[in-house]
Amino acid sequence: MLRTVRATRYVSPLREGGSVPALVEADDDGLYVVKLAGAAQGTKALVAELVVGELARALAAAEPELGLLVPELVLIDLPIELSHAEPDPEIQDPLAASAGRNVGMDFLPRALPYTSASGPQPDAELAAAIVWLDAFCENVDRTPRNPNMLTWHGRVWLIDHGAGLYRQHAGLDPAKARGRFAAIRDHVLLPRAASIVAADERLARHVDEPLLRRIVGLVPDDWLDAERAELLVADLLARHAEPRDFVEEAERARTA
Length: 256
Known about the structure:
With 256 residues, the protein is of the alpha+beta class. The protein folds into two domains: 103 residues; 144 residues. The chain is 33% helix and 17% strand. The protein contains seven helices and eight strands. Strands 1-2-3-5-4 form a five-stranded mixed beta barrel. A hairpin with an 8-residue loop joins strand 1 and strand 2. Helix 1 packs across helix 5.
């Protein structure tokens, strides 16, 4: 189960992208980056944040030697009063609209944005695992322009999965789930990755219906009703079924 915490102090906005995340302190004395339910992308982005992030954490637990790292995710209740601490109306409005439940990610103090030109780098197997995860979840936002990774204590951490499962926004259809995902050619780690086929052999065996149902079941009902939850599980299962065309596409892009 995900932990639920309550925000007690608004610290600052993080002016990055359309999601306008906020940094808050919670009643467990932790600092969290909060992805707001009232931001432009709406709750579908929070669904993706939870499902993709928790899938990555499940794979990390199954293959600990890979070093696949995602900060802890929590559900975080945001009192409307905290929005009054933000003077900028462009940020105050989504904060106020987000009163109630949101997604929080453990804040990594003094972490730096990942860059492929310098700093800590994932090894080839870890890079391949991240490419595989993003191809499976159709994450369109792990590019050189916006890697959505941080470096902290000499290691690479994955953040911000709200752009995954992008077909939610047009309506999921398991009959269309087996797409090759050509956008993987723009993945920031593709030049560093080992075989995506080998990554598939290593990771796909850990993904099954019970795991997907457990992860999708973490999403609050007011973000994902029972019918849509069943559709999301069916879509992910269809995408996972062999042969996985997205693996072939990613490997073709890697060797091109």
